[in-house]
Design a protein that fits this description.
Blueprint: E1 3-8, H1 13-24, E2 31-36, E3 42-47, H2 50-59, E4 66-72, E5 87-88, E6 94-102, H3 105-111, H4 125-137, H5 143-151, E7 156-164, E8 171-176, E9 181-185, E10 188-192, E11 204-207, E12 213-217, E13 220-224, E14 234-237, H6 253-259, H7 261-269, E15 273-274, E16 277-278, H8 287-291, E17 295-300, H9 302-319, E18 323-327, H10 328-331, E19 342-348, H11 354-365, E20 370-374, H12 380-384, E21 387-390, H13 403-422, H14 428-438, H15 441-449, H16 452-462, E22 467-472, H17 476-491, E23 494-499, E24 516-520, H18 527-539, E25 543-549, H19 553-557, E26 562-566, H20 575-593
Parallel strand pairs: 17-18, 17-19, 19-20, 20-21, 22-23, 22-24, 24-25, 25-26
Antiparallel strand pairs: 1-4, 1-10, 2-3, 2-4, 5-6, 6-7, 7-8, 8-12, 9-10, 9-11, 11-14, 12-13, 15-16
Helix pairs in contact: 4-5, 7-13, 7-15, 9-13, 9-17, 13-20, 15-20, 16-20, 17-20
The structure holds fructose -6-phosphate.
Fructose -6-phosphate is lined by residues 301-304, 348-350, 353, 356, 400-401, 485, 489, 607-608.
Length: 611
């Protein structure tokens, strides 16, 4: 949550910061602000979206060769102008922007004494006061040293970025459990929360590790630990370009990302088979270790959790290992029973979700090996895990996750097959055959995307449905959860998902004349059961929108008001990759019909780096 960017050494630093903030706005859009450094600090900040700040910048042009910017997802203090970042110390000599939470900010505020007044209600402002006090106490101003001293006093999760008039060309950043990357290209120093903000300038970046602090100048950057010892950040190159981070003619990033799914899935599947065997090289796994696994925990949040539910089915089916899927924020606060024979799979698009990272750490504390199924290369989860499987979906900008989800499912299928292979549960020829069949998914996805006009019509018709129930069984159930989540988060309509067989145990009482039920009824071994469950809700007055598969839709058409027909999936376990797409499109079209902000839904942010 919250996006940070800093630039030093460019005449048009402000333009670069604003362009970077545009790419970071997905991280939060409660307010935005900028401060330009040098011999004095000039700042501007506005509540609301970045467009409010850019409008203000037109009225009050601000220029400089060094500056830092921020886009906020509010935690402490209302999302107004005053609480917007940057925050300055009372003398206006130090400015800070911050992503995360400084948990002991009240104690730190108190330590400054009663006569110190604070302009905002934020946890952040105290950091500017403390750094200013340190600088004032130095004989030769050294922003890096001042930040080191202050960071040692902070508790919580944070990435912080400072400028100060006493050290006018320098940006100092500190990272602890919130992402921060630094870069240097063509005589300009950069920092940002996410590589998307810097991709226009360079693909070579370095991710700071927890406890690292960096001094960034136009000459380059140096990274130290809290004691001032030189340390190495994680340097890497990004394999996508600026084009991938643009809308490319689509009205919204979400729509573009829905349409990118055939390519994204093809990229996830690429080059996995060699010499008749499935290779997942990034896993760095040991065959003996895999043979000894007796339990798998899948940990994730939100959409990633739903993909984990499909992964569970794949691992149990192919590898024969018991799997539990758990919300990361719950797992981290209980006493799960794990050992070195428990494999933990942490799934995350961003690789920066703090609940998932903390849950993975909790598992590692009990010696369980952790595999990260992650999209963002170089992210914290990817770096800290014992092994990683990248989904190769490319940058996902829309808050509502789409292509990350389908590629996670494909990644989960690969993991299931891989575990089966390494444990000798399946013949290589069988695995090779399934992999061959999975190669048909991209073409099938293209076919599913052709349903778009039909889905748009249905969305227009049901755009005001006050309550939508999604039901499914087996592979349809995770998709029911995902369909309901998509509808809630971007259209703000009430939607819930239930296992279709559970309806009769309570939820069916909610059905009345005209209720909308979306039923996942693709071909598969539970198809007949789904048809019965559809009849049960229809008999009680529900309008049913069924998602079915060529070959079995004639049975569905007799029982549902509307049927969307999917091509046959190359494998029953791959079905969810196809069946989720009409639901992504449905939520997209409902939200646009209702005039909602699809890419930046209220109260949400893409990367959730707070608890
Ligand atoms: C919903 C959505 C969220 C994320 C969740 C986890 O569309 O995007 O539910 O799936 O916040 O994020 P990652 O996958 O980055 O860990």
């Amino acid at each position: 949550m919250c996006g940070i960017i800093g630039i030093t050494g460019r005449d048009d630093a402000v333009d670069g910061i604003v362009a970077g903030l545009q790419r970071l706005e997905y991280r939060g859009y409660d307010s935005a602000g900028i401060v330009v450094g040098g011999q004095e600090l000039a700042y501007l900040k506005r509540a609301g979206k970045l467009s409010n700040l850019t409008a203000a910048l037109e009225d009050e042009p601000t220029a400089g060769r060094i500056g830092i910017g921020h886009t906020r997802w509010a935690t402490h203090g209302a999302p107004n102008d005053v609480n917007a970042h940057p925050h300055l110390d009372p003398s206006g000599r130090v400015a800070v922007v911050h992503n995360g939470i400084i948990e002991n900010y009240q104690a730190l505020r108190a330590s400054l004494g009663d006569d110190v007044t604070f302009a905002s209600e934020t946890d952040t402002e105290v950091a500017a006061h403390l750094v200013a006090r340190e600088l004032a106490a130095q004989t030769t101003p050294d922003l890096l040293a001042a930040v080191r001293t202050v960071v040692a006093q902070l508790e919580g999760a944070f990435s912080l970025c400072f400028v100060a008039v006493d050290d006018p060309d320098t940006i100092v950043v500190a990272k602890h459990e919130a992402p921060l990357i630094v870069a240097h290209a063509d005589g300009v120093g950069y920092c940002a929360s996410d590589v998307a903000a810097l991709i226009a300038h360079t693909r070579d970046v370095a991710a700071l590790l927890d406890g690292q602090i960096a001094r960034i100048t136009p000459e380059g950057y140096e990274v130290v630990d809290v004691d001032g010892n030189a340390v190495e950040p994680h340097r890497y190159s990004v394999d996508w370009d600026l084009d991938a981070a643009e809308k490319q003619g689509y009205d919204h990033f979400m729509l573009k990302e829905i349409h990118e799914q055939p390519q994204a899935v093809a990229d996830t599947l690429r080059d996995r088979l060699a010499d008749g065997r499935l290779h997942l090289d990034e896993l760095r796994s040991d065959e003996g270790e895999i043979a000894r696994i007796d339990k798998v925990f899948i940990l994730a949040c939100g959409t990633s959790l739903h993909s984990g539910m499909v992964t569970k089915l794949a691992i149990e089916h192919w590898a024969g290992i018991p799997v539990e899927v758990e919300v990361a924020s719950e797992f981290r606060y209980r006493d799960p029973i794990l050992s070195e024979h428990t494999l933990v799979i942490a799934i995350s698009q961003s690789g920066e979700t703090s609940d998932t990272i903390a849950a993975a750490n909790h598992a590692r504390d009990q010696r369980a090996p952790v595999i990260a199924l992650v999209n963002v290369v170089g992210s914290t989860l990817a770096r800290e895990a014992d092994g990683v499987l990248y989904t190769h979906a490319g940058p996902e900008v829309a808050v509502a996750s789409t292509k990350a989800f389908t590629t996670q499912i494909v990644g989960g299928l690969l993991l299931g097959l891989y575990l089966a292979q390494q444990r000798g549960r399946m013949y290589s020829s069988e695995i090779g055959d399934i992999l061959q069949r999975l190669q048909r998914i991209p073409a099938a996805l293209e076919q599913v995307l052709e349903l778009d006009p039909q889905v748009a019509n249905l969305a227009e018709r049901y755009q005001d449905a006050p309550y939508t129930m999604f039901i499914g069984r087996h592979t349809g159930l995770p998709i029911a959860y995902e369909g309901a989540l998509k509808l809630k988060e971007i259209s703000y309509l009430h939607a819930e998902a239930f296992p279709a067989g559970e309806m009769k145990h309570g939820p069916i009482a909610l059905i009345e004349e005209g209720s909308l039920v979306v039923a996942l009824a693709p071909a598969g071994h539970v198809f007949g059961k789904m048809v019965s469950n559809i009849q049960e809700v229809r008999a009680r007055g529900a309008a049913v929108l069924a998602i079915g598969t060529e070959g079995s839709v004639s049975d569905l058409k007799a029982h549902a008001d509307h049927v969307l027909t999917l091509p046959e999936a190359p494998h029953e376990l791959a079905g969810p990759v196809l069946s989720v797409v009409p639901l992504q499109l449905f939520s997209y079209h409902v939200a646009t019909a209702r005039g909602e902000d699809v890419d930046q839904p209220r109260n949400l942010a893409k990367t959730v780096t707070v608890e």
